[in-house]
Amino acid sequence: MFRQFFLVTIMLLLLPRQTLTFLHTRSPPLHLPRLLSTQYTIDPPSRNETVKLLPLLSRIHTNKQNFLAHHVVPAHTIAAFDSFKALLPNLPSLNGARNLILDHGCGTGTSTYNLAALHPNHYVLGIDRSSDRLSRGRTFPPDSHLFLDPSNPRVILLRAEISSFMILLSSFLTAPDFSFTVTHQKIYYPNPYPPTKLLSSRVYGLPSFPILLSLGGEIELRSNWEHYVDQFSIAVQALDELEQRSPRPISKRVLPSAAPGVSRFEDKYFKCNEACFGTTFLPPPLTNSRKRDRRHVRRGVVQTGVHSVPGERKSPANYELS
Ligand SMILES: C[S@@+](CC[C@H](N)C(=O)[O-])C[C@H]1O[C@@H](n2cnc3c(N)ncnc32)[C@H](O)[C@@H]1O
Fold this sequence. Notes:
This protein is an alpha/beta fold. The chain has helices spanning 2-14, 17-26, 50-62, 64-70, 75-87, 110-118, 131-134, 162-172, 209-214, 226-242, 264-271, 288-301, and strands at residues 72-73, 99-104, 122-128, 146-149, 152-159, 181-188, 218-223, 250-254, 277-281, 306-307, 313-314. The protein contains twelve helices and eleven strands.
């Protein structure tokens, strides 16, 4: 008996990590304990967080217009957005299209470059608030929040606070001089904020989460914390339902740990055999009433920002979040 137990244990330890994690994720109700962990592994919370998440999302949904009306955009993000806007007319269409990928919290920009290589007909906008991370290996022009790489003109790096940037972008998406389509949004390894009391600091607990969902395109989240990925999915589904959108097709997977990873964090995790998870959401199918709404927005209902304190901008008052 002991001998058999010993042999099974040895076999499990010899299995590649991916197989073990696959077993783990394929059977959610079973909740097998993690058999291997690294210094980066985050345990699931001891209590069911969904009971806190759903009321939080409901409040976010109810307070959306209030948030948009009162959110004060920091001066550096206004400057960054204005530089981005000024750049757009100079970007030629690629193969007849003007497609944009958003790389949220791009850190050092590794993923931004990798995404540009993977999508040769797209511009990729990497946004991060950390000038320290963004400046690694490159020099931003003096007093500028925007970095353009002459050797890769499809990569744009921007120093900005992402919630504020999304607010500005969402009002501009429907403006006649914005002729880009957000085809993908990538959220790679966001800060996990593990304690439940920090739920509202996670990407899917922020008041700006509905704006992210409204920007469009396919959304991909990656994290080494499987719980984060699962809760993100619950949040997307709950908000889509609250906003009466059709459900988005979702796919979740364990990422094959073929180094180098797409981003710096992913690379770090892959190198030490930490399991990483990805979830992808296709854009929700447009219903007839949403198609009508979109035409309405295109006709110019959306207003642009109103300046309040010098250097800071109150969010546009009249938003149409589709
Ligand atoms: C854990 S790092 C991941 C970086 C990168 N995505 C990767 O996978 O290597 C999270 C990044 O998000 C950025 N970030 C967090 N909150 C942000 C915010 N509100 N606005 C802009 N960037 C933010 C941080 O500066 C940091 O670079």
